């Protein structure tokens, strides 16, 4: 909001400064033998420029009115004042290179278009006014299509539209990055505050349950083991510094939201426990939200297979990598007994489709690939690669 206000104030200041310059030239050229052919027309154009400058400054100050209808009206007034030069000024003076009535005042329209639509809109506005500059000489029947002064004015219009539009785009991008940085800082502060509260309450209770369960043995020991896993998972979750909180899981039947992205790291770190170690990059790994859900589900299916076939105490490692070239790689490795050759094909033939559907099927639907490395006594590693368009 601060950037928009500053830009429109600058355009308003330019309008009034250019109006003052045009008023001085019109006053100087209205009398004497070298004056306008129709002096009254020059004063009428100045009056129109004055009224429109006041109205445009007021109109563009309200964000709700900064649309293309107002920009079109601004361009129409600028073009009308420009074309009026052909009637007010004499043919001889135009042939000598005397400037148009509004002079540089018309460039305010180029600036306004550039502020709203960036470089492309600024160049388009400059092209429209360039046509008007040449039409002045056509209507005045000067026999030329504009002298050096006309060409110089047209070039300056194009430069103003291109440069100002580009600067506006850069400024808006910088403002967006600053807002994002402030948002991340606020999220980090809130995460740290929640982490302190959790550490002083929930984590200590879970640690106590784990310790007392191990001392009591029996069913209490199993409860203690589960409390320990939840403590480790919770510690891992709150230790992802700078990452946004994971999005809420969708309800059953709730379709994914297309067009949105989410950081894959929190979705995977949620699987961390005393037996599962999750390693992720320090920077966010954005994926389309539906793709991120499917990758996380495939990782969960792989970890379920580890617990089912390798036992509750088997260790697993999840590694997330972003190669920076448009692919995200997730590998799940365990220290289990491994699989003999042909084991997956036998399971699929017997109707056990956990790996085929839950892992390979999900990744295939994302146009990704799955590679499984396993050998008896050497554990199993599942490597999933999915495209991540930037």
UniProtKB/TrEMBL annotation:
Residue intervals passing through the bilayer: 7-28, 40-60, 67-88, 100-116, 123-140, 152-171
Domain of life: Bacteria
Keywords: Kinase, Membrane, Transferase, Transmembrane, Transmembrane helix, Two-component regulatory system
Any single biological process term in GO: phosphorelay signal transduction system
Domain Histidine kinase/HSP90-like ATPase: 296-389
Start and end residues of each DUF5931 domain: 1-179
InterPro entries xref list: DUF5931 (IPR045975), HATPase_C_sf (IPR036890), HATPase_dom (IPR003594), Sensor_HK_TwoCompSys (IPR050482)
Biased composition (Pro residues): 244-258
UniProt keyword Lipid metabolism present: no
One Gene Ontology term of the molecular function aspect: kinase activity
Keyword Metal-binding tagged: no
PANTHER family found in the cross-reference section: NITRATE/NITRITE SENSOR PROTEIN NARX-RELATED (PTHR24421), OXYGEN SENSOR HISTIDINE KINASE NREB (PTHR24421:SF61)
Descriptive protein name: Signal transduction histidine kinase
């Amino acid at each position: 909001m601060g950037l928009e206000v500053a830009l429109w104030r600058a355009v308003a200041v330019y309008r009034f400064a250019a109006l003052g310059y045009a008023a001085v030239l019109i006053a100087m050229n209205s009398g004497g033998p070298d004056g306008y052919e129709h002096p009254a027309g020059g004063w009428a154009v100045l009056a129109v420029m004055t009224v429109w400058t006041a109205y445009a400054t007021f109109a563009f100050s309200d964000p709700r009115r900064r649309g293309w209808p107002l920009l079109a009206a601004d361009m129409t007034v600028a073009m009308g004042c420009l074309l009026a030069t052909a009637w007010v000024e004499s043919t001889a003076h135009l042939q000598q290179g005397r400037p148009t009535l509004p002079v540089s005042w018309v460039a305010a329209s180029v600036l306004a278009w550039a502020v709203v639509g960036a470089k492309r809109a600024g160049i388009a506005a400059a092209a429209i006014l360039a046509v008007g500059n040449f039409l002045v000489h056509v209507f005045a029947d000067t026999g030329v299509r504009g002298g050096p002064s006309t060409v110089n004015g047209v070039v300056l219009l194009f430069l103003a539209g291109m440069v100002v539009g580009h600067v506006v785009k850069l400024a808006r991008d910088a403002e967006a990055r600053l807002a994002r940085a402030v948002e991340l800082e606020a999220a980090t502060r809130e995460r740290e505050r929640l982490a302190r509260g959790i550490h002083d309450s929930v984590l200590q209770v879970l640690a106590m349950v784990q310790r007392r369960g191990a001392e009591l043995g029996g069913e209490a020991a199993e409860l203690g083991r589960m409390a320990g896993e939840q403590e480790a998972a919770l510690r891992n979750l709150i230790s992802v510094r700078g990452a946004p909180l994971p999005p809420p899981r969708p309800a059953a039947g709730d379709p994914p939201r297309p067009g949105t992205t989410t950081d894959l790291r929190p979705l995977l770190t949620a699987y961390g426990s005393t037996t599962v170690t999750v390693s992720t990059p320090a920077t966010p790994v954005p994926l389309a939200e539906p793709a991120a859900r499917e990758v996380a589900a495939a990782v969960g299916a792989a970890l379920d297979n580890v617990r089912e076939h390798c036992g509750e105490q088997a260790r697993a490692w999840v590694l997330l990598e972003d190669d920076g070239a448009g692919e995200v790689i997730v590998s799940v490795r365990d220290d289990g007994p491994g699989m003999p050759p042909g084991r997956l094909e036998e399971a699929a033939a017997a109707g056990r489709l956990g790996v085929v559907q839950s892992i390979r099927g999900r990744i295939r639907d994302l146009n990704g690939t799955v590679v499984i490395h396993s050998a008896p006594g050497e554990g199993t590693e599942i490597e999933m690669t999915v495209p991540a368009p930037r």
